[in-house]
């Protein structure tokens, strides 16, 4: 990190180049060029210490914290800077390489005033809005088509104020309606998390944590310096509740007792009502629930179909509706609204991922996904507001309606493969190194090859590792690749794939290097694996039921088992049984492919989705906090195998090995918050 005596400049000159880190530009005479985000950050960092040698290790620790990247990552950034500034390494006028040490900025550095701002509304068409800092840059491209008539659409004015500067992971923020206070959760590698309440104006922060309490979904409360949050008291018989946390008194009061965990929380100040989610006992799925303070009672609002689940409820400004996300599969999410009488309306089509959403007014919403930030009306009219730079996404968006402010969080994350060798302990060892996202790892039965999905070249594609050589598979670019599984002879690879809302089963032959996809339709599917006869099994969503299917890739024949409601399944190592969870109660079942079906008793806190695999005796599963657990089916003992928080990501399917385990490790490297004015096209 930079030494405290150095000042980080947003606007400066290096020799005759004027650098604007707010807009990611370098200007000389009449020539203006665009700076790449990481290059601008590193140049800004070096400009704070002209003439000093900055080691490569320091640069890696500062700009790639907690990431496993190759040496070439920094080489490419320095090369890009030199090319942009018309510099060279042999006779440097800007950046000199100090052999075996690092780099030195040899150019003259002068502070310059920022460009003048014009206080008028601008029509923005394809303009990149750049936010530059030590840890986070987002290039925001907005394209507006002004219309004199309804519907009213939100507009970004292009000026952003950074609220936080920290490498710590910051989750589930909430901005008060007057944009004066911000609350969020700081996550760490310990078992607890920390609740933060921040003054937007003064940037001062108050902290609250408890050794036996976990917090989630904080909301700024109307009481002074107070926050509402979902809590879990780990040492109590009824652990879940909605509590009021008073930061002045350092006190916590339970307000609403919950029967299960909640997947969201919203508070309407005028009506004093609260919405959250609760499990539909005996089902594992969630529905939206309203707490009425007048009668101190809970009222279910949403009615998800069997196997579907609702989360992240948010009150409309009027308090007459609640918007939420409905999930029917890990790759299928849509925004719905429900009024206080329980009448539901679907707002968006189902899509692979929705990271956040909020109301813009009583008739339209904003939402974000991997592609950017959008506005959508009740009729489904959608308009794109901004696009983040590659390898970043809008992780959170919230509107402070009283003052027309927009809170955004731009998140950068990367993922790699990690393996546990149980014969030597629980230390996780990396099996890939990448600037992109590697996931869904599957090692062949003969242990000679490893397959995984990766975004190393931009699009998600299938990659193979063999004899320590990596290569991508030709024509394997998809929107999503998951459920990778090897045939017994290690010569065939199967997976679930998604492209343009179509799902299919992919096969790749190692010997012929031929890839084939058998496309089904728009219904999600989950590949199970290969049976002893080299047939592939998968489950497919039909209405609200998941039907089990056996497919012969040689004869192209299909046999369906419609009576088996199989959501996710795994073959036992000897292929004699199928262990599966159903989509309704998510009960664990053991089936011998005949008439013998046995329910398996599992602990209440054992949440299974894609996060599990089996061996001959039990179930490996990754908890929501990233810890690895093992449940022995015979003696019903549940124990932690890896206790480190965040060791593995529960979003991806792992693989158990004879003496080990391989999974996906995900690292969030940037998650700061930004504030902008939000206007509309009727102003």
UniProtKB/TrEMBL annotation:
Transmembrane segments: 124-146
Protein's UniProt name: Winged helix-turn-helix domain-containing protein
Domain of life: Bacteria
Organismal lineage: Bacteria, Pseudomonadati, Pseudomonadota, Gammaproteobacteria, Alteromonadales
Species in which this protein is naturally found: Pseudoalteromonas obscura
Keyword Transmembrane: yes
Ranges of the DNA-binding region feature: 9-107
The family this protein is said to belong to: Belongs to the TolB family.
Domain OmpR/PhoB-type: 9-107
Keywords linked to the UniProt accession: DNA-binding, Membrane, Transmembrane, Transmembrane helix
PANTHER family, per the entry: PROTEIN TOLB, PROTEIN TOLB HOMOLOG
């Amino acid at each position: 990190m930079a030494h405290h005596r150095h000042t980080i400049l947003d606007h400066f000159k290096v020799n005759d180049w004027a650098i604007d880190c707010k807009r990611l530009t370098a200007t000389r005479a009449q020539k203006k060029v665009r700076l790449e985000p990481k290059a601008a950050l590193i140049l800004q960092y070096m400009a704070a210490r002209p003439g000093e040698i900055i080691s490569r290790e320091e640069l890696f620790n500062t700009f790639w914290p907690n990431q496993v990247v190759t040496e070439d990552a920094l080489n490419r950034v320095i090369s890009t800077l030199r090319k942009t500034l018309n510099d060279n390494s042999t006779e440097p006028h800007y950046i000199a390489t100090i052999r075996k040490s690092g780099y030195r900025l040899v150019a003259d550095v002068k502070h310059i005033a920022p460009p003048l701002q014009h206080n008028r509304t601008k029509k923005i068409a394809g303009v990149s809005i750049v936010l530059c800092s030590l840890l986070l840059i987002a290039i925001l491209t907005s394209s507006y088509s002004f219309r004199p008539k309804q519907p009213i659409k939100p507009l970004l004015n292009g000026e952003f104020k950074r609220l936080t500067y920290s490498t710590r992971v910051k989750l589930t923020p909430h901005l008060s309606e007057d944009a004066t206070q911000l609350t969020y959760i700081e996550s760490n590698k310990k078992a607890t998390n920390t609740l933060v309440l921040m003054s937007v104006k003064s940037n001062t922060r108050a902290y609250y944590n408890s050794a036996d309490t976990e917090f989630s979904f904080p909301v700024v409360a109307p009481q002074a310096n107070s926050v509402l949050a979902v809590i879990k008291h780990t040492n109590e018989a009824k652990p879940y509740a909605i509590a009021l946390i008073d930061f002045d008194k350092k006190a916590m009061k339970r307000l609403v007792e919950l029967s299960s965990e909640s997947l969201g929380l919203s508070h309407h100040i005028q009506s004093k009502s609260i919405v959250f989610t609760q499990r539909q006992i005996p089902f594992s799925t969630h529905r939206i629930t309203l707490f009425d303070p007048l009668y101190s009672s809970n009222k279910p609002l949403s009615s998800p179909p069997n196997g579907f689940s609702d989360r992240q409820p948010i009150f409309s400004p009027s308090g007459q509706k609640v918007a939420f996300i409905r999930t029917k599969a890990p790759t299928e999410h849509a925004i719905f609204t429900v009024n206080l009488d329980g009448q539901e309306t679907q707002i968006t089509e189902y899509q692979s991922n929705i990271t956040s959403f909020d109301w813009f007014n009583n008739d339209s919403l904003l939402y974000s996904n991997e592609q950017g930030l959008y506005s959508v009306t009740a009729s489904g009219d959608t308009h794109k507001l901004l696009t983040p730079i590659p390898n970043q996404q809008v992780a959170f968006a919230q509107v402070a309606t009283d003052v027309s402010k927009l809170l955004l969080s731009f998140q950068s994350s990367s993922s790699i493969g990690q393996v546990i060798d149980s014969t030597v302990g629980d230390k996780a060892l990396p099996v890939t190194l990448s600037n992109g996202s590697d996931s869904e790892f599957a090692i062949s039965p003969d242990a000679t090859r490893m397959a995984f999905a990766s975004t190393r070249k931009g699009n998600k594609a299938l990659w193979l590792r063999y004899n320590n050589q990596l290569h991508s598979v030709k024509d394997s670019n998809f929107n999503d690749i998951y459920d990778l599984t090897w045939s017994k002879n290690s010569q065939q690879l199967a997976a679930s794939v998604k492209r343009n809302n179509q799902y299919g089963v992919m096969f790749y032959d190692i010997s012929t290097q031929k890839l084939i996809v058998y496309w089904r339709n728009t219904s999600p599917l989950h590949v199970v694996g290969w049976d002893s006869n080299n047939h592939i099994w998968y489950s497919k969503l039909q209405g609200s039921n998941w039907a089990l299917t056996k497919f012969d890739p040689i004869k192209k024949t299909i046999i369906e088992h419609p009576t088996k409601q199989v959501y996710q399944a795994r073959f036992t190592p000897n292929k004699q049984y199928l262990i599966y969870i159903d989509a309704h109660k998510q009960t664990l079942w053991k089936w011998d492919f005949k008439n013998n079906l046995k329910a398996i008793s599992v602990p209440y806190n054992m949440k299974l989705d894609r996060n599990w695999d089996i061996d001959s005796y039990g179930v490996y599963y990754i908890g929501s906090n990233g810890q690895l657990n093992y449940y022995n089916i015979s003696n019903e003992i549940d124990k932690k195998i890896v206790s480190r928080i965040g060791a593995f990501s529960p979003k991806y399917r792992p693989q158990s090995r004879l003496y080990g385990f391989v999974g996906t490790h995900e690292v969030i490297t940037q998650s700061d918050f930004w504030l902008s004015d939000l206007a509309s096209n009727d102003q």
